[in-house]
Amino acid sequence: GIRLHKGVLMYAAEHVKRLFQGAKAIDVDVGVTPEGLIKMMYDTVDANEMHEGVHIRLMVTRGLKSTPYQNPTFTVGKPTIVIAAEHKTAAEGPKVNGMRLMTTHVRRGAPDVQDPAWNSHSKLNCIAACIQANKAGVDESLMLDPHGFVATCNSVHFFIVVDGVVVTSKRKYILHGITRDNVMRIARGLGIETREEDFTLTAVYSADECFVTGTFAGVLPVREVDGRKIGDGERGPVVRRLQEAYVKEADAIARRGRGG
């Protein structure tokens, strides 16, 4: 997703670049330039007089087919581009009270199965993990990589804080998250040490703080994983600093305007 904040699309160039990388990998011709796609999104929100509190789902498919069959050679015509913009804002409660997670049995796959870097519609492993979280009555599923190390959640990226150091998984088995990367950059700018490394659930349970990142909500604390309270169960100081800094950066981007 892409967020519209004060009339400006947040990190639009990064999001569109990732889309084009995935499209190239699966041999989809998007049919427009990255700049043209960004303009289409702005045209959509402007036509609907949208300015603030808007979340956009940008989707591209190969287009119509002459018959329902998986082979792309049966595609006819141009690709289908969907820009679904809706007024939607994250609830304030979880930003303070935090989320509850559980570890799912569904693993993140290796790139030779289906590259996790593709932000594709075919994400049934993440959907299965989401369903399991729903059935268990928690907010998200925490997913492990094929070797048993923590990878990511079913729709957001996961971090732990240990002795003031922010730690997240390596990029091998995750979607290359735009908000994830920006929050890591912001953390380093604040003088917070940030690492990408393998870690297990044992490190998660004993972490001082945990949090997740995503386009829709930004930075959210995690108060519980697999029934274990994280830290003292409250939003920690590192998460609070990152939340405040992330909001300030979004405002700064908006002040620079659409050409900034």
TrEMBL record:
Q: Which GO terms describe its biological process?
A: amino acid biosynthetic process; carboxylic acid biosynthetic process
Identify the keywords attached in UniProt to this record, alphabetized.
Pyridoxal phosphate
Q: Which Gene3D superfamilies match?
A: 3.30.470.10, D-amino Acid Aminotransferase, subunit A, domain 2
Q: What molecular functions are annotated in GO for this chain?
A: catalytic activity
Q: Does the entry feature the keyword Ligase, yes or no? A: no
Q: Which cofactor does it need?
A: pyridoxal 5'-phosphate
Tell me which Pfam families the record gives.
Answer: Aminotran_4
Task: Work out whether the entry's keyword set contains Transmembrane.
Answer: no
Name the domain of life.
Answer: Eukaryota
Record-linked InterPro entries? Aminotrans_IV (IPR001544), Aminotransferase-like (IPR036038), BCAT-like_C (IPR043132), BCAT-like_N (IPR043131), Class-IV_PLP-Dep_Aminotrnsfr (IPR050571)
Q: Which family does it belong to?
A: Belongs to the class-IV pyridoxal-phosphate-dependent aminotransferase family.
Give the protein's recorded name: Branched-chain-amino-acid transaminase
Q: Species name for this entry?
A: Micromonas pusilla (Picoplanktonic green alga)
